[in-house]
Amino acid sequence: MTRRPLRVGNASGFYGDRFGAVREMLTGGPLDVLTGDYLAELTMLILGRDRLKNPDLGYAKTFLRQLEENLALAHERGVRIVANAGGLNPAGLAEALRELAAKLGVPVSVAHVEGDDLMPFSEGALTANAYLGGAGITACLRAGADVVVTGRVTDAALVSGSAAWWFDWAPDAYDRLAGAVVAGHVLECGTQATGGNYAFFTRHDVRTPGFPLAEIAEDGSSVVTKHPGTGGVITVGTVTAQLLYETQGVRYLGPDVTARLDTVRLAPAGPDRVEISGVLGEAPPDTLKVGVTRIGGWRNEVVFVLTGLDVDAKADLVKAQLAQALSGVATVTWTLARTDHPDPDTEETASALLRLVVRDPSPDRVGRGLTAAAIELALGSYPGFHVTAPPGPAQPYGVFTSSLVPATTVPHVAVLPDTTRHPIPPVPIPPVPTPPVPAPPAFEARGSGRGAPEGARGAAPVPGTGLAAATTRAPLGALCGARSGDKGGDANIGVWAESDAAWQWLRATLTVDALTTLLPETSGLPVARHELPHLRALNFTVAGILGAGVASGHRFDPQAKALGEWLRARHLDIPTHLLSSDPAPEGTRP
Questions:
Q1: Measured between alpha carbons, how far is residue 198 from residues 112, 286, 374, 503, 539 in Å?
Q2: Among 77, 91, 128, 271, which residue has the least CB neighbours within 10 Å?
Q3: How many angstroms from the chain centroid is the CA of residue 253?
Q4: pLDDT tens column, 521-562
Q5: What residues does 129 pair with on adjacent strands?
Q6: Angle subtended at Cα 180 by Cα 487 and Cα 159, rounded to the nearest 5 degrees
Q7: Which of 82, 337, 95 is nearest to 184 (CA)?
Q8: What was the pLDDT predicted at 336?
């Protein structure tokens, strides 16, 4: 007997997301499961520092306050809650939830998933957590849990684990699990699926986007939608953007299944409804990713405001005046942002920003003594000297790294509502080699210089026709969307087109060499390019651009959130007929 689709929603994309989203999702329409993603690489560092201060902490306290307001409502409506808010202490959060339920008089059962915490892991590690799959969540729900909290599971596991419970899928139902993982990846970042952070945001009212939900069918296909009357929009374009977010190759590796992103097909299914189908799954790897955070040292920064004429000379003077004070510092980074304009009509638009960032193992070398040396220049440096903030003390910064461990060495355990400890065995890996993903024709050739940004303005080849077309110098974003994000020290940039003709041009033009020319900060770094033709998309991974990860503050944009928007702002020669044609209705697929 076929069971009806599972309605699973999301109410959090990060620790600090909209507090009222839990109530919005519970009152906005019917749900079976409500999920919340509270963990990220930076969050694990924050929770690690919390745990140093108090071993009873280490979980997302916001989640507990949200359920204080909404636990009775969820119970009344029969909605199960599944969240990774347990962070470094899922057992502690589960116990706090039981105490809360007793205080509120709400008869709910609470379970949790643990085993991801691998501390002590290595010298200097603050946290070390394996990315578990959804099987522990499935076991907890099967045992009757109303609320399930986990530590570090993959973000998509909140959804795929719930779907496996709802449909009673076997561990080797790879295609179905892969479909649920893809739906989970779309939901995991909340309003990014409903028009938030969307390249074409001006087409829609996205002032207060609602949170997404998915109707997952027994075969693993799904429809992504949102509650009626909520803000934002769901289109093939917004779903495409989220599918490309923080992914790498065409294989989306997970502890339960490997989802083939090159098989994903999207289609409109009505207003604010997008169907996801065709997803193929393969066996998961026999290893688990482990995210490790460390305190990397101490950092400080000063931002000098350079106003008016001779900006470069003013910057050179400051650098020379501070050279001696900086001579013993481990890492010194100067960045000049030319935010000034010629003939400016406001003082702010007459000004550029010179940013000094210092890092060192010792807080003394980058503390108030160093920032005070910068302030001492106030009356003896460039004309108009001022800074954006007073001198401050050094602050610790974190470093994120990842490694792999055999899945058999991680004690994945579901602690059921009656406190029974239920070990989750590793997913059996069939002794069949993973088939290779076939490369499209001339894939390697497109990694050379073909389609370089400074092509002839008068004509450009029209792919597949042998004909030339007139071109216009324009930003890439006039034709294509993009979304980018971080994975440790690496970044990804997903770029998609909205019509077949634009996709053929994008595929031929945006080579690795073209990308590194358009984004000089990527030059010299390892860059990989992957094609997702069903999505009319390219996905680039740029290794090492973020240094030691977001917590180290390596770049102006430490999480690469705007790297895709920078790419869209770069100009190149685009066939004029592509710019003049109307876009497809929000990325419809043939």
A1: 34, 35, 40, 19, 16
A2: 271
A3: 15
A4: 999 999 999 999 999 999 999 999 987 665 566 678 888 999
A5: 117, 291
A6: 75
A7: 82
A8: 96
Q: Which amino acid is at 168?
A: D
At which residue do the structure tokens 């010629």 appear?
342
Name the residue with higher pLDDT: 212 or 449.
212
Q: What span, in angstroms and rounded, lies between the C-alpha atoms of 503 and 239?
A: 17
- According to DSSP, the residues that pair with 339 across neighbouring strands are none
Tokens representing 175? 């295609």
Q: What angle do CA 387, 391, 393 make, to 5 degrees?
A: 145
Amino acid occupying residue 398:
G
Give kind and range of the element (H or E) at residue 352: strand 351-360
Rg (CA), the chain: 25
Q: What is the Cα–Cα distance from 56 to 454, expressed in whole angstroms?
A: 58
Other beta carbons less than 10 A from residue 309's beta carbon: 11
Between CA 506 and CA 578 the distance in angstroms is: 11
Tokens of 539: 């996905």
Render 169-202 in DSSP notation, one character per residue: --TT-HHHHHHHHHHHHHHTTGGGGTTTT-TTGG
Strand partners, 523: none
157-163 mean pLDDT: 98
418 has a pLDDT exceeding 50: yes
Nearest alpha-carbon partner for 161 in 4, 39, 1, 33: 33
Torsion angle defined by CA atoms of residues 172, 175, 177 and 178, in that order, rounded to the nearest 10 degrees? 130
Q: Tokens in use for 454?
A: 């400074």
Beta strands in 443-570 (DSSP E): 460-462, 467-469, 471-475, 481-487, 490-496, 527-532, 537-542
Summarised one tens digit per residue, pLDDT across range 431-456 is 655 556 555 433 333 333 333 334 33
| Residue of 279, 276, 270, 278 lying closest to 585 (CA atoms) | 270
Work out the number of other CB atoms within 10 angstroms of the CB of residue 437. Answer: 14
Q: What is the pLDDT of residues 355-384, one digit of tens each?
A: 999 999 999 999 988 889 999 999 999 999
Give pTM, 2 decimals: 0.90
CA distances, 307 to each of 198, 335, 338 (Å): 34, 16, 10
Residue 162's closest CA among 175, 181, 190?
181
Q: 478 near 572, Cβ under 8 Å? A: no
**Which amino acid is present at 562?**
A
Residue 356 contacts residue 334 (beta carbons within 8 Å)? yes
What is the average pLDDT across 288-308?
Answer: 95
Question: Residue 324 is encoded by which pair of tokens?
Answer: 């001696």
Cα–Cα distance measured from residue 74 to residue 527, given in angstroms and rounded to the nearest whole number:
46
Q: Which two tokens stand for residue 527?
A: 């860059």
Nearest in space to 137 (alpha carbons), one of 180, 201, 189: 180
Kindly list the strands in the beta sheet with 251-252, ordered across the sheet, starting from the edge strand earlier in the chain.
251-252, 258-260, 280-282
First to last CA, the chain: 32
CB 489 within 8 A of CB 478: no
- Cβ-count burial 165-187 (b if 16+ within 10 Å, e if not): bbbebebebbbbbbbbbbbbbbb
pLDDT, residue 102, reads 98
Nearest 5°: phi and psi at 185? Answer: -65, -35
Q: Which residue has the tokens 């495409």?
A: 240
**In which residue are the tokens 């039981």 written?**
98
In a 3-state reduction of DSSP, which class is residue 111?
strand
DSSP-derived letter for residue 122 is S
